[in-house]
Amino acid sequence: MGTEIEYGITVQGDPDFDPISSCVLLVNAYEESEVARILWDYDQENPLADARGFNVEGEKYTPNQQENIARNKTLMNGARFYVDHAHPEYSTPEVTNVRDLIAYERAGERTMEAARRTATALLPAGQIMLLHKNNSDRKGNSYGNHENYLIARRTPFKDVVANLTPFLVTRQIFCGAGKVGSENRAARCDYQISQRSDFFETEVALDTMVKRPIINTRDEPHADREKYRRLHVIIGDSNMCEMSTYLRVGVTSIVLALIEDGQIDRELGLSDPVRVLKEISHDLRCKKAYPSEAGGRRTAVEVQREYLELALRYFGSREIDPITKDVLTRWEQVLAKIEDDPMQLGRELDWVAKHNLISAYRERKGVEWDHPSVHMMDLQYHDIRPDKGLYFLLERRGEVERVVGNEEIEAALQSPPSDTRAYFRGECIRRFPDAIFGVNWDSISFNAGDDPVKRILMNEPLKGTKSHVEQLLDDCEDAASLVGALTT
Predict the structure, then answer these.
(1) Contacts of 364 (CB under 8 A, 6+ apart)
(2) Is 84 a catalytic residue?
(3) Which helix (H) or strand (E) holds 391?
(4) Where are the domains of the chain?
């Protein structure tokens, strides 16, 4: 699994702000060894492949070499830091569990902040680059937090659509980031649970920027296509609270295990899921019930409880790892508290923590929800500057629950995960930066000596781990000897 986070960007004090050039400045401001000279290998990508069994019409954009280098950095921890359209984006390396994912995603926040400070120093006097880990600009534009899960290709995609849709529609009650007001012609509200829900318009599609779907059909596995599918989930908010991320990704991976193994044996679908998605986001009490396709009505909590019951049954007869066991426990506890009173979850959930902060401010100042200072607080909650962001204020006060420690985040900033192919990628970049020509998630191309560029494929995400290749890397004094060892 892994995440891709698009950050909001602006330059305070710049009347001619250009987001793309600012993104390029930001990416190139981050210094780490010689990685800036490594190309991102777009040849290995196919964003037009649809999981429903066809390719859509369109042109795949591939930048020239100079633009490629300017827009991309592959880091020694196995992550990718790059420009995506008009946003800076950080993609975590592949990890095998949600705890590691949180460590690498938070390492991404620190990467962004280090680059932001350096970039600001390069701007004219009086200008400050600002970055926000949020999902909308209040001008009708939304940008995403995309989750990626490697699942078995043998699982029929129609089963994924049928069984995952009601889960994704309702999971926002524990992983929404919270938002003041509404956008994109959605019904007016003072405050809602999710930042992204206003922007979804269809149930299943390939697009990620227009007519956004609940289920995205991109079929780009970055692995052995015969065995794997990468499920590209675009419906989640960018979370600041670690527990919101822990539940969002941890519970989703559990539900996908149920789907893969055919363990969802009841009808959980909701009628008109796009409409229900928006209505759940506006229901802060989480009490409203929605029509089910099987008849009757269910609340979002009740739908989630159905999935929880199936998960408890599934793992009741299987060996369970400590992280999965903890996710199940937290899921059950949080659903119980949401059913009782969601506002008691200010330590765990972003949308509640932000709501409580703003509500306390409104009471002190006597202002309404549409006051400009309230909108500013909404934005400032997501400011990645540790001394300015309101989330970080709560963190310093010990008012939010942590999942990982600062030492784990620092380790993730410096080193790749040891139990996926990201270890091989990150270590090659650290050891042989001058000999690497191009990188993708599933390959590394070496330009070693006078030989032609040699592409090493990495189609198995659980190969190339520390236990698998560390001795090989230690035995090779240069990239040429490594390539030789891998190709003989």
Answers:
(1) none
(2) yes
(3) helix 390-396
(4) 155-229+238-381, 446-488
Phi, psi of 213 (to 5 degrees): -100, 155
Dihedral in degrees, nearest 10, Cα atoms 407, 408, 414, 419 = 150
Q: How far apart are CA 157 and CA 162, in angstroms?
A: 9
- pLDDT band (50, 70, 90) for residue 85: confident
- Distance of alpha carbon 83 from alpha carbon 64, whole angstroms: 14
- List the structure tokens of 161: 């659509």
Closest by Cα among 50, 30, 27, 109 to 410 = 109
Query: Which H or E run includes 341?
Result: none
Mention every residue, 6+ apart, whose C-beta is less than 8 A from residue 310: 258, 263, 264, 265, 266
**Mean pLDDT on 55-64:** 71
Element housing 93 (H / E): none
What's the mean pLDDT in 267-293? 97
What pairing do the DSSP bridges indicate for beta strands 145-152 and 2-6?
A: antiparallel
- pLDDT for 308: 98
Sign of CA dihedral 232, 237, 242, 248: negative
Pick the catalytic residue from 16, 41, 84, 450.
Answer: 84
How far is the C-alpha of 486 from the C-alpha of 61, rounded, in Å?
31
Q: Which long-range contacts link 334-337 to residues 24+ away (Cβ below 8 Å)?
A: 334/174, 334/247, 335/174, 335/301, 335/304, 335/305, 335/308
Give the H or E element holding residue 281.
helix 273-282
